[in-house]
Amino acid sequence: MSAAPQAPETDREVPGPHPRRWAALGVIAISQLMVVLDATIVNIALPSARVDLGITEADQQWVVTAYTLAFGGLLLLGGRIADYWGRKRTFMVGAIGFAAASAVGGLATTGPLLFGARALQGVFGALLAPASLALLTVLFVEARERAKAFAVYGAIAGGGSAVGLLLGGVLTEYASWRWCLLVNIPIALLALALAIPLVPESKAHGDTSYDVPGAVVVTLGLASLVYGFTEAAKPDKGWDAGTTWAFIGAGLALLVVFVVIELRSRNPLLPLRIVLDRNRGGAYLTSMLVGAGLFGAFLFLTLYLQNVLGYTPLRAGFASLPVTVGVLISATVASNLLPRTGPKLLMMVGPVLAAAGMLSLRFIDLDTSFWAHLMPAQVLLGLGLGFTFVPLSSLALVGVPEHDAGAASAALNATQQIGGSLGTALLNTIATSAIAAYLVAHPPAGPEEGRQAALSAQVDGYADAFTWAAALILVAGLITAVFIRVGREDLPTGETVAHVG
């Protein structure tokens, strides 16, 4: 979920290992845990927050997309700021800002205030995540030590999502959904207190100009697209409304302007030569489509478990763990197979498995069994995701010059976040439209029938969302089959991968 740093090849660091590097790794790991926790902990809290703040079904996706939009849209700029302004300084500002935004969100009294706080978390997360990885890159200069450091970082990135699901359940059930945000404050303060004495400062030198116009335009363009999808989900608007298509059209126009800015910029946010390579372009499209299907599906799975099956937040957290188990299994297998098979085979098998798991979730009902249906479907989904994401990380670096390595790796993470933003908004629109259509087609005769109809309508809407999520992931597999031409001998070495994270 977090971005790789911009390539620090112009650093003028003192050669040799830093004496406090392992202690610094512990500090960086704490901050990474905070960012990863935030991606899953809020999903468990959402049903309670929605009731407490009166958030509508059409607007509920902003709790997720406000964060992922700001995070994904500003990741590349955050990486450059970390390299040029100072990695420790950026790390500390990111941690302070993330904690402050979490406080605002935890104390929010309205839906829009919560959405704004989540967007601020994304802004400061876009500083914190690339600064953390860049610090690791310059602290660990020996290849074997660097591989160990990134293994620790990656383990937290993978396991932190599971911790977030469980912690979100505990906090929501026994304290309040607000603590799912407020818990970031003590974590950030601990990281700051330790960072001051333990983490050294480092900077890149040379051309330190920023492509601020590019970052602003691409973020506004994506936000406009998401808002257009949100308008389509509202009962009084829909796909026929002029405002829906106005925002979608404005979003697309701004993305075209972004491309023009990147073509003309002396130091572009995203050098287009990175994207236009056939293999990397295929990798970025795959990342975006899988992210689109995945983020939205996780949201609706959480809503289904709590709103329809009546699971408590803690039970819903445990019930969401099979996806993580599947990812950990397949990621381990894929890491061993990748040098032998190359990325293409794994990246074709992965989406098929993930889509099969997603399609299985399409057949949910009012009383679906967890052990017979939900657990195997989630494990299958997780297995597919692991087989997809492990080779994607290496594929993004194939044939990349060293000075573009940071941007290429960060762009992969950004496309996943951006895909998640657009996918969540689109799938939420599909689900709410299906829910409204079901209620129109099945008008209840009385209060009890009305409650039953409302639950059945939610099941119908979530099932539609799972179906479209499966379709998005399958398209990602097709793109892999058409675009990817990389063999196992073309993959970057372990040292290169470790260098950029």
From TrEMBL:
Domain Major facilitator superfamily (MFS) profile: 24-488
Pfam family, any one: MFS_1
Cleaved signal peptide residues: none
InterPro entries: EmrB-like (IPR004638), MFS (IPR011701), MFS_dom (IPR020846), MFS_trans_sf (IPR036259), Sugar_transporter_CS (IPR005829)
Spans traversing the lipid bilayer: 22-42, 62-79, 91-115, 121-141, 150-170, 176-198, 210-230, 242-261, 282-305, 317-338, 345-364, 376-400, 421-441, 465-484
Main location: membrane
Subcellular localization: Cell membrane
Topology with respect to the bilayer: Multi-pass membrane protein
Keyword annotations from UniProtKB, A to Z: Cell membrane, Membrane, Transmembrane, Transmembrane helix, Transport
GO MF term set: transmembrane transporter activity
Keyword Isomerase on entry: no
GO CC annotation: plasma membrane
Protein's name according to its UniProt entry: EmrB/QacA subfamily drug resistance transporter
